[in-house]
C-alpha cells in the first residue's frame, strides 16, 4: 500500500504542487474576505 501511495505521488508531483498552491490561494482569499468587514 505504501508503494502505491509513493507511485501515485511521484506521478502526480507537478499537479500536486499546483493543487496545493490553489488551495493556499483559496485560504488567503477566505481569510481576506473574513477580515474585510473589520477594515471597512
Number of helices: 2
Instruction: Give the total of beta strands.
Output: 0
What is the helix fraction of residues, given as a range? over 70%
Low-pLDDT stretches are none
Q: Helix and strand succession?
A: HH
Shape: rod-shaped
> How does the helix and strand content classify structurally?
mainly alpha
Radius of gyration: 16 Å
Portion in beta strands: under 5%
Q: Would you give an account of this structure?
A:
There is one protein chain. The relative contact order is 0.09. The protein is built from two helices and no strands. It is mainly alpha-helical. The mean pLDDT is 89. Helix content is 92%, strand content 0%.
How would you summarize this macromolecular structure in one to three sentences?
Helix content is 92%, strand content 0%.
Attribute tags:
single chain, 40 residues, mainly alpha, 0% strand, rod-shaped
Could you give the topology of this structure?
Blueprint: H1 2-11, H2 13-39
